[in-house]
Each structure stands twice: as structure tokens, then as C-alpha cells.
Amino acid sequence: MRVVVLHYALEPLVSMVDPEGRSVVLVVEDEPSYQEALNVGLTVEGFAVVSAHNLAEARELLVSAKPDLILLDVMLPDGSGTDFCREVTGSSSIPVIMVTARSSEVDVVLGLEIGAADYVTKPYRLRELVARIRAVLRRPANDVDSEEVITIGPLRIELLRRAVIRDNVQIELSRKEFDLLTLLASRPGQVVTREHCLDSLWWGLELSDTRTLDTHIKRLRQKIELDPANPKHLVTIRGVGFRLDQ
Ligand code: CA
Fold first, then answer.
1. Are residues 181 and 96 in the same domain?
2. Strands (DSSP E) along 83-228, which ranges?
3. What is the pLDDT of residues 87-144, one digit of tens each?
4. Which residues span the domain enclosing 107?
5. What is the number of structural domains in the chain?
6. What is the Å distance from ligand 1's center to 166 Cα?
7. Ligand 1 centre from 227 Cα, in Å?
8. Is the whole-model pTM more than 0.85?
9. Would residue 121 count as lying in a domain?
10. How far is the CA of 128 from the centre of ligand 1 (A)?
């Protein structure tokens, strides 16, 4: 792999649509150590990174760099990341991952309707962060023209509304349950490995700790299957993973 370390922080704000077709991540972070580590780490992981150290730079890069995703610190020198998140998600479909320094900030991020796609808490592991970035980038764009519906047997999965309907009745799913169902539904009739489920949805967990996954599969079955003990759609392939059948 070719490794390119980019130091946009030292360069003027220039228009940048990545020539190699990489996803462009706008990192808004005022702490130099985090900024530097993210520049290097995300570049190695195959992303094009543009850096802003405050909201003023972030607003310029939002226009000039056309980021695919924004990684946004909460406390910035010229304002609050939560306000900027509202601005971005209110006027575009660019997903925002909030980076919080304390658990109290997590409460703020979750408590306010700011439209963030996800959040991470410092200190985070790069592997976990990258998994979250990839998961968010895989989600369908929040765009009125791109509403997608997946039909699996009697289930209608509306990605934009994050709604699942069976026999005209909406099924209440938790966020994780919906993400898991969507992951399986993205490859109907094909086995999705346990490892892939864990990597996509439970970034930080060790592979040996798979009870959480099993619990979610069980709950999902109770909600979507007519006879959860004899599942017709959400099938376990023992020792490998799961398959969603029509
Ligand atoms: Ca900060």
C-alpha cells in the first residue's frame, strides 16, 4: 500500500475533490495531537483527509473540499461542534460523526437533535473509529431522491425512514436491531459472517464476545418472525453467520 501523509493543516485552504476517488473525510479538531494522528491514521486506511482547526475553516472546507463525511470535535475555539453539526445536517446529506471528550458531552450529543450519524468518545482506538466511518459511509444517503426499500418476504425495510413494516404494521426496532437487519438485507440469500456483523456494528468488541450479537439476533427474530423458534427468514448458519431469506 502506498502511504501518503498529508499535512493540510500547513497549507492554504484549497479545493480538493480527491483525484484517486477516495472518500474525503473532513476532520474538525483543534488539538494538534489528535489532528496529526487522524491525518496519518486515516490516510493509511485509504481516506483523503482535510483538516480544519476551528469552525471558520470547517465552513470553508465544507464548500471547497466537498467532504463525504465530517469528523467533528465538540469543543472548538470559535464555537460548538454541536451547532455546526446542526448546520451541516440541516442543509446537506453529509454524515457527521461527533467526537466527544467526556461522557457528559455524549449526553449532550445524544440529548440534542443535532442529526449526528454517530459519535465516538476520546480516547478512541483508530480501528474502532475507522469501522464507524466505514459503517456510516455505507449507509444510504439521507436524500429524498434516494429512498430505498428492501423487500424480504413479508418485510418491507424502508432505509430512509429506518422503518420496517410487516403486514401493514410497523415493527419497532432498536437502532442496532435495524442496522443488523439492514446489514443482512443488503445481501439477501447470502451468508453474512458473524465477524462481519461484529465489525460493522460492534466496533470495539473482541470476536470472542459474541453474546451481544446473539442477543440481537434473537430479539430481531422475535420481532420479525411469525414463529421465532422456527425462523423462516432470519436463518443461523451454525459456526459461520446468518442469512436473511425471502
Ligand atoms: Ca476540542
1. no
2. 96-100, 118-121, 149-152, 155-158, 163-166, 169-171, 191-193
3. 898 788 889 999 988 777 776 666 566 778 888 888 888 988 999 999 888 876 544 3
4. 24-138
5. 2
6. 45
7. 50
8. no
9. yes
10. 20
Of 46, 98, 105, 91, the closest CA to residue 70 belongs to: 98
Within-domain flag for 9: no
- Ligand 1 centre and the CA of 167: distance in Å? 48
pLDDT digits (tens, 9 = 90+) for 205-229: 555 567 888 999 999 999 999 999 9
Distance CA 56, CA 184 (A): 40
Q: Domain of 176: which CATH number?
A: 1.10.10.10
Amino acid at 51: S
The environment of the single-atom ion ligand 1, i.e. residues with CB closer than 5 A, is: 30, 73, 75
The one-letter amino acid code at 180 reads L
Q: Is the separation of the CB atoms in 56 and 33 below 8 Å? A: no
Chain centre distance of CA 52: 21
As a whole number of angstroms, the distance between CA 151 and CA 17 comes to 35
99 CA distance to ligand 1 centroid (A)? 9
Looking at the structure, tell me whether residues 164 and 196 fall in a common domain.
Answer: yes
